[in-house]
Amino acid sequence: MEESNLIRFFGNGPFTRILDALIDNVGESHSKKEIQELAEISKGAFFNHWPKVEELNLVKVTRTIGKTRLYTLDKNSKLVKDILKFEMRMIEETTPKTAMVRAK
Questions:
Q1: What structural domains does the chain harbor?
Q2: What is the distance between the alpha carbons of residues 39 and 16, in angstroms, rounded to a whole number?
């Protein structure tokens, strides 16, 4: 798996990996188990850090199937908007300048 800018800047910790998985799958709905698998972290690490994700209102429930809730990154959250802007800024800063010239 290629290291994302978010992980390169903020480290490979479980919280960052959860956030990175949510950003990579923005607009998609996933169960906690799926998010944990996308983040490639242990179940214990996921459940240690998930409360912070909810406390910061980074996710919203999109639907419930039985007892399973599906979550997505809450793009209406001011904090999420700022994180996504920062992610775009990191992409701009880390994109090789030669690739940008060729793209024009």
A1: 5-103 (1.10.10.10)
A2: 9
d(CA 36, CA 20) in angstroms, rounded, equals: 11
pTM, full prediction = 0.84
Q: Which of 11, 17, 70, 24 is nearest to 45 (CA)?
A: 17
Q: How wide is the angle at C-alpha 48 spanned by C-alphas 46 and 53, nearest 5°?
A: 75
Residue 27: partners with Cβ closer than 8 Å, 6 or more residues away: 72, 73, 75
The DSSP 8-state label assigned to residue 12 in this structure reads S
Q: What whole-number distance in Å separates Cα of residue 58 and Cα of residue 69?
A: 15
Kind and range of the H or E element at 53? helix 43-55
Please answer whether residues 6 and 20 qualify as being in contact, where contact means their C-beta atoms are separated by less than 8 angstroms.
Answer: yes
- What is the tens place of the pLDDT at every residue in 41-68? 999 999 999 999 999 999 999 999 999 9
